[in-house]
Amino acid sequence: MNKVLSVAKTILAWVFVVFCLLMAIGCGSVFGSIFFILTAVLSIPLKIVRNLWDTVLGIQQVPDLSDDTPAKWYQTKKKKEIKQHNNAVEDQKNRKMMKPLIIFVVFMISFCIAMANAEPADNANTKETVESVETTEAEETVVVVETPAPTPTETPKVTPTPKPTKTLEVTATPVPTNTPEVVAVVPEAFSLSNVPAYSGKPYVEINQKVPYFADSELSTTSYEYYSDLDSLGRCGVCIASVGQDIMPTEKRGDIGSVKPTGWHTVKYAGVVDGNYVYNRCHLIGYQLTGENANTKNLITGTRYLNVEGMLPFENMVADYVKESGNHVMYRVTPVFDGNNLLASGVLMEAKSVEDNGAGILFNVFCYNVQPGVTIDYATGDSSLEEKVAVKEQSTPKPEATQAPVVATPEPQPQQQAPSATGSYAVNGKNGKIHIVGACSATGNGGSAMTDPVYFNTYEEAESYSISIAPNQSKRKCGNCYR
Fold first, then answer.
1. Of the residues 126, 223, 257, 338, which has the maximum number of CB atoms within 10 A of its CB?
2. What is d(CA 14, CA 22) in angstroms, rounded to the nearest whole number?
3. 8 A C-beta contact, residue 168 and residue 335
4. Could you give the 3-state DSSP secondary structure of residue 314?
5. What CA–CA distance (Å, rounded) separates 204 from 367?
6. Is the pTM for the entire model greater than 0.90?
C-alpha cells in the first residue's frame, strides 16, 4: 500500500512540474515565467532535488529508541531520552512541512503575476462603435473619432478632416498586431485655449505632468504608428512604444526633400541660432524610431521648438531606454489652430511601461515660437519683431539697410564638397562642425578629416551633428570658430 501511495505521489509531482512549465511558456510575463520555472524545479521528484531540500531544511532521519530497559534506576534517564526523541521527531515533521509550503508560496506568486499580465479573453473579438463627441467651449471644438481596429492584413488608414477655425482634430490610431488596443486621442481635458501664452519658457507642463494614456494603451511590445496627412497636408498624432529593437543603428539620412506645411527657407543672421528660423522637426525623434524623410513624421518647427523644446525630452527617453532596456509609451500630437498650416506647438506625452512611470513620466506642450521673430501661423510667413529690427538698423554695418529676411535655395544635406566660402563640413566620427577652408581638417593634408559630410547651411550641418552625436557638448571646431 505504501508503495502504491509513493508511486501516485511521484506521478502527481511530475504532472505539477509539467503544468508549471506550460504556465511559464504562456503566462506572458518574464517575471511570471521565472517564478513558474522555479516552482517546477523545486517540485521535481528526483533524489538529487529531495537531498537538496533535506540539506537546506536540515531534515534528518530520527532513529527509533531502543526498548531495552536494563534496570529500574535507568527509567528516569529513559524518560528524558524519550522526550528528546519526541521533540526531534516533531521538529523533523515541521521541517518537512516547509517544502510544500515554500513551493505553494512560489506557485501563488507565479500565478498572481501571470493573472496581472493576462489580457481579457474577448480583446481579439471586440469591435468599437463609432462615436462622435462635440464639446463647444469659447468657440473651441474638440472632435474625437474612434474607428474600428484593422485586421493584421489591413493597412491602417486615418484621414482627419479639417474643421472650421479653432477646431482641434484627433483621430483614433489603428493598433499594430500583438499590441494592446491603443487609441491616439487627446482627451477633452486638453484644449489649446487652456494653454497659457508663451512667457519665455520653451514648454509648459500639462495635467501636472501626467500623460493621458489609459492602462490598456501601455505596451511592452515595440511598435510605431504615424497618422496619414489630412486634406491640407498636415501631420497628425504619432505614437510609439519605444524599445531598443526599433531604435536606429546607423546615421540619419537626408530629409531635405521634405517640405512640410508652412515651410519657408528663411534666415535671420544674428537673431536665430544657426540663422534659419525653421527646421524640419521630427514628431517622434530619429534617435527613438529611426525615421528619416517620413512626411507623416515631419512638421515645420522653429529652431527654438526643435532644440530648446523637444530635444531635451527626446534625449531623456533615448537615454532611459538604452540604459534600462525598458519600453516607453510615447505620443506626440501637433496642435493646429483651425486651418493654420503651421502648428501652434506640440503635445508630448511619455510614460515608462515596465516600472509604471518611475523612470519616465511627462506631459508637456512645447511652443512653436522663435524669440525675436513674429510668425504668421496661417501661412508660415515670418518677420523680425519691431524691437529687433530697430536694433539692427542702429548697428553701423553695411548690411543694416538690407531687408532682414533673406530667402535662400533649398539646402541639399549630403553632397560633394563645395568650393564656395562659408560651406560647412561635419566630422562623421565625432559630429564636430567645421567651416570649409577655415582649418586644416577640411583640407587635403595629413590632418584632414577621413569621414567628412558636407552641407550648404549651418542649420543642416548642426542638425546632422546632433543626430550622430547628441551628447556632444561643443559642436563647433575651436579653430574654425575663434
1. 223
2. 12
3. yes
4. helix
5. 8
6. no
Q: How far is CA 187 from CA 159, 182, 251, 401, 440, in A?
A: 19, 13, 36, 50, 56
Would you tell me how many other CB atoms lie within 10 Å of the CB of residue 77?
A: 9
CB atoms within 10 A of CB 257: 11
Looking at residue 93, its pLDDT comes to 78
Per the structure block, which three cell numbers stand in for 474?
Answer: 561643443
348 beta partners: 332, 364
Helix (H, G, I), strand (E, B) or coil at 479: coil
Residue 117 has a pLDDT of 65
Nearest Cα to Cα of residue 378 among 328, 426, 332, 343: 343
Q: Which residues have a Cβ under 8 Å from the Cβ of 262 and sit 6 or more positions away?
A: 300, 340, 341, 342, 343, 377, 379, 380
SS3 26: helix
Alpha-carbon span 353 to 350, nearest angstrom: 9
What is the pLDDT at residue 189?
A: 72
What confidence score (pLDDT) does residue 411 get? 42
Q: State which H helix or E strand residue 389 sits in.
A: helix 386-393
Q: How many CB atoms lie within 10 A of CB 239?
A: 25
What does the pLDDT read at residue 52? 85
Tallying the residues shown for the chain, one arrives at 482
Cα 94–Cα 97–Cα 101 angle in degrees, nearest 5: 135
Mean pLDDT by 10 residues, the chain (482 residues): 80 88 79 84 85 82 65 65 81 81 86 68 40 39 41 46 45 46 62 91 95 92 94 95 95 91 92 91 96 95 95 95 96 95 96 96 96 95 78 45 42 38 75 83 76 83 85 81 72
- The span from the first CA to the last CA of the chain, in angstroms, equals 96
